[in-house]
Design a protein that fits this description.
The structure holds two protein chains of two kinds. By secondary structure, chain A is of the alpha+beta class. Chain A is 49% helix and 17% strand. Classes of the chains: A alpha+beta, B alpha/beta.
Chain lengths: 391, 227
């Protein structure tokens, strides 16, 4: 009975109800959109970083500290004996890092030179373009970001200067073999990729590596005395930390939007109690208990939310579909140093998260509807019927 | 219904304002009675206490076996929903409901089945001659039609007692007489008791019993012949 009456009241309220429902639906659509964007980016970031950089684990030279550039020159260690056959079979990919200076178009820029086997297929990095170059310039692979910074393009030749293991400066002539579209900024920014053998030769460092990328998790058990194992949890620690930081900001926005929606509902309900006090008096005179009237008004608020969910699905579907198929691009070339932000982000909609949002909104709406309605219990029926101020 | 030594006072300024003073009245089944008197004499207050919308300050009011002063809020609601009908000067129809829904409302509270409700609503609207206005909203009706809807709403559950507070105050003579005829006919055919609070001579002419109230006291209680 209460449900039927609440429904009638909402329908009877006409455009006022519609405005309420559309406001809540707009908030819901925004919340789902925000959640989907954040979630999709996280999924993308993890997937891309695994495919391009991590695979199933890393063994990192104990001399290498990614946060201390003074260690980079000596950041290598011999390939562990136990890893050698796996390197030969291609299941372990050695990568050697070397700080250097490049001279593109007469300019001078610091760069991290990374040597990777041209024939590797563990990482998504298009290293096959590094093959060749025995005669003439060494093939080099750079990302689109690096190409933009250096104004280099495929086929361009430039100079690289680095130190060999004895501390002597060596110069190499490099030719851009390919400009790769890499979604992981850390593999692009300031980085020049060359064939591992070419780099080892230039540095006079045979059979060493800075990191060993593992194809399978089972390879994590390789005994590697001068290497430390970087697990997935450790590898993504920075990302997780950033997620936490961003999550705080997002949570603030999330709470703010919910607060605004709840404020609208509270205001509508509080105004309704004031404007409809004569009606409340009449309902009471007709025999409704105050509990029933309270439930009626609370249910009205909750039903607004229910209808808003339906409107969200109907109105939001084209939008959600568009971002799932066409993706979302940041304006301009901004990527904020974040994985995958330089390309359209195809949205994935996490059902549990969306359901959680809807249920949370539903509970909050019911609560916020109930807050002002509590006053009904203290209303004087006779004064209510008169529509008086003290009602 | 018995009212025994009942007084009602309201806080006013530093002291209390005595709205009703030691009222003693007895109403039988099928009454068509009116509480008449000038404005401020306590008519509406008496009606509100009888209808358990308000409680007496002292004394006892026994309505159909319910002792008004001892009722909890839920018991008051039950008395009103099952046994009492109200008609107000300003109709107090629910604006977002149409005529049918307004009349149906008291039956929803009684949790009657759909077909049962439908028959009773149509019967009630037949009594007041509004079967052609089922889908109209109160805003689309004249004052007289609104009051007839209010009568149908009060009568639809066939209550034992209908309390009508100045039911003709906002109506012209023709509509007033039509409504009074309707109520009188229901009173005769269904045996429903009607108690009016009024100072309208048109209403008073229809009453079989006239209780005069002045400054919260009953000054006369007379039967009218030929009403």
């Amino acid at each position: 009975m209460i449900f039927k009456l609440a429904l009638r009241n909402i329908v009877g309220n006409g455009w006022r109800s519609l405005i309420n429902i559309f406001i809540i639906a707009a908030v819901l659509i925004s919340l789902i959109w925000m959640e989907a964007m954040w979630y999709s980016w996280l999924v993308l970031a993890r997937t891309e970083q695994k495919q391009w950089e991590f695979a199933s684990g890393l063994l990192r030279s104990e001399n290498y500290d990614p946060y201390d550039s003074f260690t980079w020159e000596k950041s290598y260690a011999p390939i562990p004996a136990e890893a050698v056959p796996h390197v030969a079979s291609g299941d372990v990919v050695p990568i050697l890092f070397a700080p250097g200076v490049i001279f593109p178009g007469g300019r001078q820029l610091s760069a991290m030179v990374k040597g990777i086997p041209a024939g590797q297929n563990v990482l998504k990095l298009p290293s096959s373009s590094l093959a060749g170059g025995e005669r003439g310039p060494v093939p080099a692979l750079i990302g689109t970001g690096m190409a933009k910074t250096t104004k280099l393009k495929a086929g361009d030749v430039f100079q690289l200067r680095l130190k060999d293991s004895a501390g002597a400066f060596r110069a190499l002539e490099l030719r851009v073999s390919e400009v790769m579209d890499c979604p992981v900024p850390s593999l692009d920014a300031g980085t020049v990729w060359v064939d591992l053998n070419a780099l080892r030769e230039a540095r006079l460092l045979p059979d060493v590596a800075t990191v060993l990328v593992l194809r399978d998790r089972s390879l994590q058990s390789i005994s590697a005395p001068r290497y430390e194992l970087i697990t997935e949890k450790e590898f993504f620690a920075d990302l997780n930390e950033m997620v936490m930081t961003k999550a705080v900001g997002q949570a603030f926005l999330f709470v703010l939007m919910i607060f605004l929606a709840m404020l609208a509902i509270y205001d509508t309900q509080a105004l309704a109690i004031f404007k409809r006090r004569k009606e409340i008096g009449m309902l009471s005179a007709l025999g409704m208990t105050k509990g029933q009237i309270t439930r009626l008004f609370t249910l009205e608020g909750a039903l607004y939310m229910l209808f808003a969910c339906v409107v969200t699905l109907v109105m939001g579907f084209p939008l959600f579909w568009y971002f799932a198929v066409k993706g979302f691009s940041l304006p301009g070339d901004a990527n904020f140093g974040m994985v995958g932000f330089d390309r359209p982000l195809l949205f994935v909609y996490p059902l549990p998260l969306i359901l959680f949002t809807l249920v949370l909104m539903f509970i909050l709406t019911a609560f916020v509807s109930w807050l002002p309605v509590r006053r009904i219990a203290s209303l004087n029926v006779v004064e209510s019927l008169k529509g008086g101020r003290n009602a | 219904m018995t009212i025994t030594n009942m007084s009602k006072s309201f806080p006013s300024g530093e002291g209390d304002f005595l709205a009703l003073n030691k009222i003693d009245l007895v109403f039988g089944k099928g009454e068509f009675a009116g509480i008449v008197g000038p404005s401020g004499s306590g008519k509406t207050t008496l009606l509100n206490v009888i209808g358990s919308l308000d409680t007496p300050s002292s004394g006892e009011v026994d309505v159909l076996g319910y002792k008004v002063s001892q009722l909890s809020q839920n018991q008051s609601s039950e008395l009103r929903s099952r046994h009492l009908g109200f008609i107000f000067q300003t109709y107090n129809l629910l604006p977002v409901y149409n005529v049918y829904e307004n009349v149906e409302f008291p039956l929803l509270l009684l949790k009657l089945s759909g077909p049962e409700r439908d028959k009773m609503v149509r019967d009630a609207l037949e009594w007041v001659g509004l079967t052609d206005k089922l889908k109209s909203r109160p805003a689309q009706l004249s004052g007289g039609q609104c009051q007839r809807v209010a009568i149908a709403r009060a009568m639809v559950k066939k209550p034992a007692l209908v309390l009508a507070d100045e039911p003709t105050a906002n109506l012209d003579t023709e509509n007033s007489l039509h409504i009074l005829e309707t109520m009188k006919s229901i009173n005769s055919s269904l045996g429903t008791s009607f108690i009016f609070a009024t100072h309208d001579d048109k209403v008073i002419k229809y009453l079989r019993r006239v209780i005069r109230l002045v400054d919260g006291e009953v000054v006369s209680d007379d039967l009218q012949t030929g009403a």
